[in-house]
Amino acid sequence: MNLGLIGNPVEKSVSPELQRILFKELKLNNCVYEKHEVVSDNLSTFFDRFKRGEFDGINVTIPHKEAGVAFLDELDKNVEILGNTNCIKRIGNTLKGYNTDLYGFKMLLERNSIHIESTHCLVLGAGGSARTVIQALIHKGAESITIKNKSTDNALEIQLYAKKLGVKNINLYTESNGKFDIIINTTPLGMYHEKDDSGFFDIPVDKKTTLIDLIYTSNHTLFLNQYKDQAKQSINGLEMLIFQAIKSIEIWTETTYNVDQKLDSIKKQLEKVLC
Fold it and tell me: Which CATH class name applies to 103-236?
């Protein structure tokens, strides 16, 4: 089975290493997974090759998650709602798109016993990952969702998106919002060891606050490290990354896998790659 990742850039992506770890743990010896840097102008050519059978399935990362939808013949319901795809399966000469990030985030919540129902949540960022997180928070019954983003226009767009999904209590962040039960960072701020010179992460946190950072490269991300002694719980995005990858494999192979007994081994192997 010929699988892969497309995006631009993909040089620093750990998806190939993660997938190879999963292939080994799941005994999928016939799977090959490579990364392909594809610029936007060459996207159509790549999807033509995909449809002709050069690939059986791919993952999609930035900046093609939204643009890739235009080349699909069929959409999973989550792709229809979110407007982006990160997993595509070839079925004959047709392509079906899925979003496994949503599953990955829900599994992160479940495995860390984070209960969303009736909570007040703050989402940092207003990109595709923010849409995914908001969708999960809606499904899990959040009482209110507040958005904080450097660009007000993008925040307003996400607010409109959430309202279309039926969210009544969706707000834009101000310093008078008060405290939140759960704060999720969906931005890449801190991924490349840059500083928060703008004070974007300056928000009220106390011992009742759960912090989640979708950045998976460290247990001590810029956001989590800022409040390491103040929050109730601090979690990075590593488990979300792993479970979205597992869901992709399940889609491609049409097989369900139970990785509960293997998860610690998978995490340890991946953490070595990230070091």
Answer: alpha beta
The domain segmentation of the chain, as residue ranges, is 2-99+239-274, 103-236
Average pLDDT score over residue span 66-82:
95
CA–CA dist 60, 54 (Å, integer): 16
Nearest to 98 by CA among 251, 254, 256, 255: 251
Q: Which of 12, 24, 27, 65 is catalytic?
A: 65
Q: What is the pLDDT of residues 144-161, one digit of tens each?
A: 999 999 999 999 999 998
**How many CA atoms within 13 Å lie on the side-chain side of 15?**
26
pLDDT of residue 210: 97
**How many residues does the structure list for the chain?**
275
Give the neighbor-by-neighbor strand order of the sheet with 233-235.
Answer: 170-172, 144-148, 120-124, 182-185, 210-213, 233-235
Q: Is 24 assigned a catalytic role?
A: no
How far is it, in rounded angstroms, from Cα 231 to Cα 208? 7
Superfamily of domain 2-99+239-274 in CATH is Leucine Dehydrogenase, chain A, domain 1 (3.40.50.10860)
